[in-house]
């Protein structure tokens, strides 16, 4: 399967803690994106990192990309209960391939 | 103002029926997509259109047929529905076929009985 892999599949933390999610992919990429999905909703774009970039920041989000290891990580700092959601990476290379997602639960 | 809208939000139907899901985007984007999310939350691309032209057609049964009457609309018609078609179907759009940021609709929850 070309489905990307994300780990952990589930992550439970306390408010204020940092959350790190990882995404590995199998095919080449043009860019890699991270999306959030709240329960019962559509996906919302968070951040995009291009294949020639190594790190990117947006507010409390930090994304890294290691093309040699074919992996990316999403760090959410100072998490809030509202960050509770599923997080997906999208590999935009020759094909559009989503990772299997990480379910993040942030407890108040 | 909803950027990407889908109708209906919920669809419950019997096996063997034919149904359609409609998608509209008011963002002026050129490219639209259909994704299927299964019960394990796996998301898979099904189709993509760019300016009414089919550019992505993944391994999807022939019972699924997308139609794009104009670049703001991408509908999905499903013939002879099967139990395995039960899923959430998401429409999305992006500015162009370089597939930058995608904007997703709220999803259509299809249940085939």
Topology at a glance:
The complex is a heterodimer of chains A (108) and B (113).
Chain A: E1 5-7, E2 10-14, E3 19-24, E4 31-37, E5 43-50, E6 55-58, E7 61-66, E8 71-76, E9 85-92, E10 96-98, E11 102-107
Parallel strand pairs in A: 2-11
Antiparallel strand pairs in A: 1-3, 3-8, 4-5, 4-9, 6-7, 7-8, 9-10, 9-11
Chain B: E1 4-7, E2 10-13, E3 19-25, E4 31-37, E5 43-50, E6 53-57, E7 64-70, E8 73-78, E9 87-94, E10 103-104, E11 108-112
- How many beta-strand segments of chain A? 11
Stretches of chain B where pLDDT falls below 50 for ≥5 residues?
none
Distance between the termini of chain B: 34 Å
| Helix segment tally of chain A | 0
Tally of DSSP β-strands of chain B: 11
Distance between the termini of chain A: 37 Å
Q: What's the alpha carbon Rg of chain A, rounded to whole Å?
A: 13 Å
**Number of H- or I-type helical stretches of chain B:** 0
Task: Give an overview in words.
The complex is a heterodimer of chains A (108) and B (113). With 108 residues, chain A is an all-beta fold. Chain A is 0% helix and 57% strand. Chain A has strands at residues 5-7, 10-14, 19-24, 31-37, 43-50, 55-58, 61-66, 71-76, 85-92, 96-98, 102-107. In chain A, the strands form 2 sheets. In chain A, strands 2, 4, 5, 9, 10 and 11 form a 6-stranded mixed sheet that branches. Chain A has a 5-stranded antiparallel sheet with strand order 1-3-8-7-6, with no helix packed on it. In chain A, strand 4 (31-37) and strand 5 (43-50) form a beta hairpin. Chain B is mainly beta. In chain B, the strands form 2 sheets. In chain B, strands 2, 4, 5, 6, 9, 10 and 11 form a 7-stranded mixed sheet that branches. A 4-stranded antiparallel sheet of chain B has the order 1-3-8-7, with no helix packed on it. Chain B is globular. In chain B, 33% of the residues are buried. The interface between A and B is medium-sized, with 23 and 23 residues.
């Amino acid at each position: 399967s070309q489905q990307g892999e994300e780990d952990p599949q589930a992550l439970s933390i306390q408010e204020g803690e940092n959350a790190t999610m990882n995404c590995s992919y199998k095919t080449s990429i043009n860019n890699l994106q991270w999306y959030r999905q709240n329960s019962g909703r559509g996906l919302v774009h968070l951040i995009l990192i291009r294949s020639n970039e190594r790190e990117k920041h947006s507010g409390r989000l930090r994304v890294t990309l290691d093309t040699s290891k074919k992996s990316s990580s999403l760090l959410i700092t100072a998490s809030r209960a509202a960050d509770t959601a599923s997080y997906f990476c999208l590999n935009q290379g020759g094909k559009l391939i989503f990772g299997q997602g990480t379910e993040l639960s942030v407890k108040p | 103002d909803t950027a990407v809208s889908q109708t209906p939000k919920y669809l419950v139907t019997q096996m063997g029926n034919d149904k359609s899901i409609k998608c509209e985007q008011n963002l002026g984007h050129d490219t639209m997509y259909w994704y299927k999310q299964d019960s394990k939350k796996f998301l898979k691309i099904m189709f993509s259109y760019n300016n009414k032209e089919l550019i992505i057609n993944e391994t999807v049964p022939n019972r699924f047929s997308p139609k794009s009457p104009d670049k703001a609309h991408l509908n999905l018609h499903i013939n002879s529905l099967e139990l395995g078609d039960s899923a959430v179907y998401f429409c999305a759009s992006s500015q162009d076929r370089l597939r930058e940021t995608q904007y997703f609709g709220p999803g259509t929850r299809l249940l085939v009985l």
